[in-house]
Design a protein that fits this description.
homodimer, 432 residues, alpha/beta, Rossmann fold, 6-stranded mixed beta sheet, 4-stranded parallel beta sheet, 14 helices, 14 strands, globular, threonine deaminase activity (chains A, B), pyridoxal phosphate (chains A, B), TrpB-like_PALP_sf (chains A, B), EC 4.2.3.1 (chains A, B), L-serine ammonia-lyase activity (chains A, B)
Chain lengths: 432, 432
């Protein structure tokens, strides 16, 4: 199948016959124009982003709840709400999700949050230790449905590993594009799964531009780029964070939720997921607030939020939180909408605050977060201090990655003492 | 409470009143001598290792099965079979376990195992990404029961992180002892949880000797060394691997199971767990074979196995599989017994074969294993080639750790191509 970027309503080849469960069509987020399901991501009318439109009309609330609760301990318990076939759990994939929602009473005490009210959704428990496994798993099912045989992406880190691992398990060829001068550790992590790992002579923008070119070329035929031509499907994976949080809270909405912002897609899909649960009657309809978290060194959305702007001015990233370092976030305006509509906010923290927050989370809850988790915990602290977050309400903070992947951030951490192997030396060091 | 190494039957202070669920006493593995539950690990009669004796007499098989299946998605679903209080799931801990049992059909194809018969038990999904979270969680409950306030261990890697994280979550002080010249990455991983991390001027043997000295000294009062004075409790955590494997196979014993050997404790406790399930009627009683896996550079048990010896001669370790590098494995003789009794074997592989096996598992199943996982997969391949493993039987291979912690082992892995950001360059590289 030839790859295309813009859908046409007259294009039936794009897959009216594909079985992606409740996914009924693609719908433009800007103008509402609908097109059949296919490997396209931009509206032919207005070039707005396409997203999945569902048909949930057949669901009975209590039957659905029972079906979910009887499902597997991974994202496929929510298959009835995702763009995947009903038998998805039987297909080879990494089965991500159903990660721990940790009641963080020690952290709550340090931050002045009421006991029992603060939770960390710890996505480091996913198969490749980041939330990217959730979104790649959706893209993989779309790739299967559209007959693609190669799974691809541009990446500088977590996504490369998630795509490589998912393709390996599912029997796809994978070809991941990264800047040629990436840190050796990240290259190893992406290369170990045995797919093609191609270094592009240039920066991440050059990598992205090349990928867009490849999608439009015959050489890209049969290629599913998870975060480009499969993006509408891919992005839906973030809804599962919302589903899991609510189910793990006993089918309750959280009052407040703190989400990291890279492209902004995750935050918008968490909002979409919460709205779906409300409409389906799976949770009670009551207000919730969504807060966005950025690093100061890449804070285009929080800058716009604080300035009261509706548009997001691109920035050149300079922060240790590299998994969030998207200077021109595609979903930035939608994030601003959601933060303002729900009564949330968007805030940023310095790299120093990120490191402090990583250490704070580790020493209070035993969770070693990636820099992105340092950003959300740091922003949570800042928003509590400013009064934007209410310490008496149920609050969920996302940790979307794993500290083992960003060891450099806490490289200053080390031995608290060095002693000789003797009790005298032990006592002299004041350890007794 | 004063810490002691050897129990006395007349010592009631050691805790006849402690509530550790079905744990009834400590029993010597060598002579069967029983003493009350307490922080002791060696028999006063014969200096044999003490292990937990349970009272499971009150359990009805079907009620127990239902209770387990209705339990949480972590090791505490098996609380009725562990030395922990019944309300353990309500106490702050890392809630490890219930990791994925991956049907490894791609790996099976490569190794010549029948489709649907090969499984990888992937313990990299634990909170600190190794099976050590299972054992530390048991030691933590014992530490609580005995009134300890400091959690401690000697370690060169996985255990340090598991103890640091568990202590942080549970509100214990932690003090971890490591050789002072450990690799910086490992130091960071252990230090981030904020406990005391003490470098000992000496090698790992010196660290261990110092810890034993500290346990006998007043300075060690109130200290629970998870792998020394709490070892009988700690070791029981490995039983949960056996429980999970059988439950995940639909309450069936595996025919063959391949287990890494460090001290050998894990293998012996997996056997104990399988035997318990048989006695409790939770699985059908039929033969199973347990295979032990070592790295050639530290293969005291496989050397003894192959030579037909009952005793294990210590070796000086020299292998990249550092988490298995125990040259004088305490449970070596028991491992030999079990391998011979069940019709299994003990085998070893070279470091080169370990690396090959890590890559094989990654490219077939998307699982990035620690070197210990490379050892088990490599040994599985070798045992299939020799005919010791039957490719038509249900076989479970353990991956007990995470590749992110032993990146150096696959540091040679890298880019498959480097190109300019152009389609011409892409085609020239033969990637189209």
């Amino acid at each position: 199948m030839a790859v295309q970027t813009v859908a046409s309503t007259t294009d039936s080849a794009a897959g009216t016959s594909v079985d992606l469960g409740p996914a009924a069509a693609l719908s433009c987020r800007e103008c509402g124009h609908r097109v059949p399901l296919g490997p396209v991501f931009a509206c032919e009318e207005c070039f707005g982003p396409l997203e999945i439109a569902y048909d949930f009309s057949a669901y009975d609330t209590e039957e659905l709840r029972k079906r979910i609760e009887a499902g597997p301990a991974n994202i496929w318990r929510y298959a009835p709400l995702l763009p995947v076939p009903a038998d998805v759990a039987t297909k080879p994939n990494l089965n991500p999700g159903w990660t721990k929602l940790v009641k963080a009473d020690n952290l709550a005490r340090e931050l002045g949050v009421d006991a029992g009210k603060l939770f960390v959704k710890d996505d480091s428990g996913n198969p490749t230790h980041s939330f990217k496994d959730r979104v790649v798993a959706q893209a993989l099912e779309a790739a299967r449905a559209f007959g693609f045989t190669t799974l691809s992406c541009s990446s500088t880190g977590n996504l490369a590993g998630a795509v490589g691992a998912a393709a390996a398990r599912a029997g796809f060829r994978s070809c991941v594009f990264i800047p040629h001068d990436l840190e050796q550790g990240k290259v190893v992590m992406a290369a170990v799964y045995g797919g093609e790992l191609v270094g592009i002579e240039g920066n991440y923008d050059d990598v992205n531009r090349f990928c867009s070119e490849l999608i439009g070329d015959p050489a890209g035929e049969g290629w599913g780029f998870v975060n480009v031509n499969l993006r509408p499907y891919y992005a839906e994976g973030s809804k599962t964070l919302a589903y899991e949080i609510c189910e793990q809270l006993g089918w309750q909405l959280p009052d407040q939720i703190v989400v990291p912002i890279a492209s902004g897609s995750q935050l918008t899909k968490i909002d979409k997921g919460l709205q779906e649960l409300i409409k389906l009657g799976l949770v009670e309809d009551r207000p919730y607030k969504i807060f966005g978290a950025q690093a100061e060194g890449c804070s285009p959305v929080s800058t716009a939020y604080k300035a009261g702007h509706d548009v997001v001015r691109p920035q050149k990233p300079n922060t240790i939180a590299k998994s969030l370092a998207i200077g021109n976030p595609a979903d930035g305006p939608y994030v601003l909408d959601i933060a303002r509509r729900t009564g949330g906010a968007v805030e940023d923290v310095t790299d120093e605050q990120v490191v402090d927050a990583i250490k704070l989370l580790a020493r209070t809850e035993g969770i070693f977060a990636e820099t992105a988790g340092g950003v959300t915990v740091g922003v949570t602290r800042k928003l509590l201090e400013s009064g934007a977050l209410d310490p008496s309400l149920t609050t969920v903070v996302l940790n979307t990655g794993d500290g083992l992947k960003t060891l450099d951030a806490v490289a200053g951490t080390g031995l608290t003492a060095t002693i000789r192997p003797s009790l005298d030396s032990f006592r002299e060091a004041g350890l007794a």
